[in-house]
Amino acid sequence: GIPWPPAEMAWQEVSLFAVHQVAERVEALGQFVMKTRRTLKGHGNKVLCMDWCKDKRRIVSSSQDGKVIVWDSFTTNKEHAVTMPCTWVMACAYAPSGCAIACGGLDNKCSVYPLTFDKNENMAAKKKSVAMHTNYLSACSFTNSDMQILTASGDGTCALWDVESGQLLQSFHGHGADVLCLDLAPSETGNTFVSGGCDKKAMVWDMRSGQCIQSFETHDSDINSVRYYPSGDAFASGSDDATCRLYDLRADREVAIYSKESIIFGASSVDFSLSGRLLFAGYNDYTINVWDVLKGSRVSILFGHENRVSTLRVSPDGTAFCSGSWDHTLRIWA
Amino acid sequence: MGMPPEMGTPQLPAPAEAASPGMERMIVSMQDPDMGIKMRNQRLLITVIPHAMTGNDIVEWLIQKYGISEEESLHLGNLIVRHGYIYPLRDPRSLVLRADESPYRFQTPYFWTSTKWPATELDYAIYLAKKNIRKQGDLIEHEKDNYNLLHKRINHTWDFVVMQAREQLRAAKQRRKGDRIVIDCQEQAYWLVNRPPPGAPNVLEQGPERRNCHTTRVQLAKNMDYYKREIEYCRKAMARTRVKSSICLEGYLKFNEQYVPHDPIMSGCLPSNPWITDDTTYWAMNAPTVTTPTKLRVERWGFNFSELLMDPLGRAQLLEFLKKEFSAENLSFWEACEELRYGEQSRINEIVDSIYQQFLAPGATRWVNIDSKTMERTLEGIKTPHRYVMDDAQMHIYMLMKKDSYPRFLKSELYRNLLAEAVIPPETKKRVFPFMRKQRHSSPSPALLLPAGDTEAKGEEKSRSPAAVPEEES
Predict the structure, then answer these.
(1) Last residue of a domain, one of B90, B111, B132
(2) For the segment B263-280, what is each residue's pLDDT rounded down to a tens digit?
(3) Is B361's pLDDT higher than 90?
(4) Residue A60 region, left (φ>0) first, then alpha (ψ -120 to 50), else beta?
(5) Does any domain span residue A28?
(6) What digits encode the pLDDT tens for the residues A20-33?
(7) Do residues B391 and B338 both lie within one domain?
(8) Within a domain: residue B275?
(9) How far is CA A150 from the centre of its chain?
(10) B277 and B382 assigned to the same domain
(11) B188 with B146, same domain?
(12) Is residue B291 located within the same domain as residue B178?
C-alpha cells in the first residue's frame, strides 16, 4: 500500500503563506487615474467577448446577436463585420498573424474566418468550421500559430484542434461541469494551459498528454475567468462568488484572495497589467475593480458601463485595457 | 394579501438565480436592529409610513459600513433598488435610489428575487386587472399592451382573473391607508423587476443556461479507469516538489521590481501613451523591427532568455551573436521545432523530414550538437513522426542557448553597444486644449500584408487606409 503520510512531506506553512505578507516590502501605489479613452459603439446587443490583435490596437469583439466585429480601436473604425448563424457568440479570438479570427457560441462550434479587405470576397464564404463540441463554446484561443486552436465548452471538456483539417488533436476531460474559460501559459518551453469551470475548479493541463497536472478548488461558485500572471508562475481567477483569487503553481496553492464586503456581484473577467502588479477585474455590477496584486487591496473602482462587464483584456503592450459590456459597448481605458 | 396558486398555468422556467448571492446578506445586515439603518416613520403627504428610511440614510449607511466613496455607495444602492430589495415610496414607478429625503422601505422577503416564486402570467394578469379596475382603464402604455396581450392569451381564465382582482381590492380596502400604500408599492416594485418596462434593464436576465452538460453523469461512472486516473493523479501530485513559500514570495518581489518600470499603466511610457495623447510615436519606436530600439527594450532582453528570444528584434540580435560563435544552427533548429509543434497536422512528416535533413542527419549542413542519448531517442522517434517528436532535442538546444550562449551574449560587445546606442524618447505632454487634438491616423491592417517579395505592392497597400467593409451575412 501507499505509506501515509509520506515521510518527506512536511506540514509547513499551511495557513501562513499569502502574498500580502510581502506588502510592507513593496512600495505603495500613487494616485491612480484611468479613464475611458475610446468608446466603441456598433454592436446592437450585449458584448460577450473580445480579444486584441498583436498589433496592439486592433480588436475583435462578439455579441449576443451573433455579430462579430473587427475594429481598429485607436481610430474606432470598424474594419470587418460578420454575422454568425447563432446567437450568444461567447468566444472570439484574434489569430497571432492578425490575418484571421475565431469565434463560436451556442452553435457548439468554433469557426475561423480569414480576414480579407477584398470587396469582391465574402468573408463568410471562406469560413472554416474547426471545433465541434456537444454544448456551447465558452472560450477559444489560438496557440502560438494560426494553425492550432484551443477551445473550452459547456460540455465539460477542453480540446485542441488543427485548424486546417479540423482534426481533434487532444481532448481534456476532468471538469465535472461546464468549462467557462481558459488561458495559455506564457512560457515558450512548456505546453500547458489553465481552465476554470462551473465545478468551481481551476485545472492546469499538459497539452501534449491531455492530463491534468494540477487542480485548485477554493472558490465558492463558478469560475468565469482565468489568466496567467505574466511570469507564468501563477494565475488569477474571477468567480461568481464575487472574489478573485491568485493561485501559485510552484507552491501549488491559493496565495491571495481579492475581495471586499461591498463587492457582492460576480467577477466575470480578469487580466493583469504588464508587470503583474495590477489585476483588472470586470464585474456583473457594471464596475471594474483594480486590485494591487501584492498588497491584496483594491486600488480603484472604475465606473462607466451601464450593464454587466462581460469581458476584459489588457492590450499586448500593456498600454491600455479593453472592457466589453452587456450595455452594447466596448471601452478602452488608459 | 396572498398570491393565488397557479391553476393550469403554462410551465414557465424557474426564475434565474439572484445575480448576487451576497445581496441578501447585505440586506439582512442593513436591517440589523443595532447596526443597521435607523428606521423611522416617513411622511408621505398626509399618511405616515412606519419602518422606513430616506435615500440619504441608505447612502450614508453604505459609506460608513463598507468604507466606500459616495459614488460607489450610490451605485451599489441603486443596484439594490433595481433588484427590488428596497423600493421607493414616492414615485414608485422608477426603481431609482435618490440620495435625498425620498422615503424608501425594505421589500418583504416574500417578493425577493431569490425566493424564486415563478412570476406567472396569471399573477401578472391579476395585478394588471387590479390596476385597471382601480384606475378605470387608465394604465400606462406598456401595461396596457401587456394587459391586452394577456387577455387574449389566457382568455379562458379571465373570469377567474377579474374575480381574484376584485377580491384582492376588496380585502385591501379594509386595511389602513398606510398599509395599503406599502402593499401597493411592494407589488409595484416586484412587477417592475419581473416585468421591466421596455427600455429598462432586465436585472433578472442571465446568460445561456449553465450546467446542462452531462459530464457530471459521465464522470460519476466510477469504474476502474476513473480510479486508475485518480490514483495516477494523486501519485504525481504527491511526488511533485512544492516550492517553499519564502522562495515564491521572493519571486513576486523580484518580478515586480524588474517589470514595474516597464509597465505603461504603472509607470507611464515615453514619449507618451498613444491612448492618452493620440500620438502613436510610442508604437512606431517599439515596432517589431526598428533600426534603433529603445533603452527599456534592450534592458528587458537582459531580464531572462525568454525576453530576448520572444522579441523579434532581440532574436535577430541573438542570431547575429550566435553566428559569431558559429552556433547559429541552434537557433534555426529551435525555430524549426517550433514550426513543427505549432504547424499544420498535414505537414508533420514534411517538417520532420526537413529538420532531419538540415540538422540531424550525419553530415547535415547545419548539424546540431545534441548529446548522444537524446539524439538516439530522437532518431528512433522520427520513424513514427508526430508533432512532439522533437521535444527532447528542442529542449536540449534551448537549454544550451539559455545556459551557455545567453550569458555570453549579455557580456558581449554586441549587446553592450546595443545598450549604449539605445534611445530614450523624450516625453511629450498631453495637449491641454481639446480642439487641438491630433488626428487619429489609421494603420495598415496585418491582414493586408502581402507575402514577402511583393514589396512594390506592399508600399502601395501601406498608404491605403482600410475603409469600413459592409457587413456580410454568414
Answers:
(1) B111
(2) 999 999 999 999 999 999
(3) yes
(4) beta
(5) no
(6) 777 778 888 877 89
(7) yes
(8) yes
(9) 12
(10) yes
(11) yes
(12) no
**Higher per-residue confidence, B413 vs A6:** B413
B32 touches A: beta carbon within 8 Å: no
Decide if B226 is inside a domain: no
d(CA B97, CA A269): 28
Cell of B194: 419581473
For the residues of A141-160, what is the DSSP string, one character each?
A: EE-SSTTEEEEEETTS-EEE
**How is residue A31 annotated by DSSP?**
-
Q: What percentage of chain A carries pLDDT values higher than 90? A: 86
- The helix/strand/coil state of B413 is helix
pLDDT tens for each residue of B160-211? 999 999 999 999 999 998 899 999 999 999 999 999 998 888 898 999 999 8
- A193 within a domain of the structure (yes/no): yes
Asked whether residue A39 is domain-assigned, the answer is: yes
Of B104-108, B167-171, B446-450, the poorest mean pLDDT is in B446-450
Residues composing chain A: 334
CA distance readout (Å), B12 to B67, B117, B119, B159, B205 = 42, 11, 9, 22, 15
In a shared domain, residues B105 and B126: no
Chain B contact present for A9, CB below 8 A: yes
Interaxial angle between packed helices B22-30 and B70-82, expressed in degrees from 0 to 180 and rounded to the nearest 10: 110
Among A279, A311, A312, residue whose Cα is nearest residue A293: A279
Cell 467577448 belongs to residue: A49
Q: Do residues B417 and B284 both lie within one domain?
A: yes
Tell me the CA distances in angstroms from B22 to A242, A260, B25, B27, B390, one per residue in order.
Answer: 8, 11, 5, 9, 51
**Residue B1: inside a domain:** no
Of A82, A119, A274, the CB nearest to B263: A274
Structural domain harbouring B161: 121-194
Contact A145 B249 (CB under 8 A): no
Q: What is the CATH number of the domain that holds B366?
A: 1.10.167.10
Find chain A residues with C-beta within 8 A of B219's C-beta: 156, 176
Whether A197 has a pLDDT exceeding 50, the answer reads yes
Q: pLDDT tens digits for B395-433?
A: 999 999 999 999 999 999 999 999 999 999 998 876 666
Please name the residue that has the C-alpha cell 489609421.
B442
> Distance from B226 to chain A by nearest Cα, in Å?
10
In a domain, A281, yes or no: yes
Answer yes or no: do A213 and B21 touch at CB < 8 A: no
Residue B64: in which H helix or E strand, if any? helix B55-66
Nearest CA among B109, B79, B85 for reference residue B97:
B79
Residue identified by cell 462578439 is: A62
Count of the separate structural domains present in chain B? 3
Long-range residue pairs from A220-223, CB within 8 A, at least 24 positions apart, any chain: A221/A266, A221/B21, A222/A178, A222/A180, A222/A197, A222/A198, A222/A266, A222/B210, A223/A180, A223/A181, A223/A196, A223/A197, A223/A198
Determine, for residues A134 and B283 on separate chains, whether the beta-carbon distance falls below 8 Å: no
Could you tell me the CATH number of the domain that includes residue B150? 1.10.1240.60
> What is the pLDDT at residue B246?
83
pLDDT at B349 > cutoff 90: yes
Report the side by side order of strands in the sheet with A179-184.
A179-184, A192-197, A202-206, A212-216
Residue B266 in any domain: the answer is: no
B244 vs A268, residue with greater confidence: A268
Q: Which of residues 389-448 of B touch A (CB under 8 A)?
A: 391, 395, 398, 440-443, 445-448
**Count of other CB atoms within 10 angstroms of residue B89:** 19
CATH code (residue A199): 2.130.10.10
Please indicate, yes or no, whether residues B309 and B392 belong to a single structural domain of this protein.
Answer: yes
- Indicate yes or no: CB of B71 within 8 angstroms of CB of A334: no
Q: Do A277 and B68 touch (CB under 8 A)?
A: no
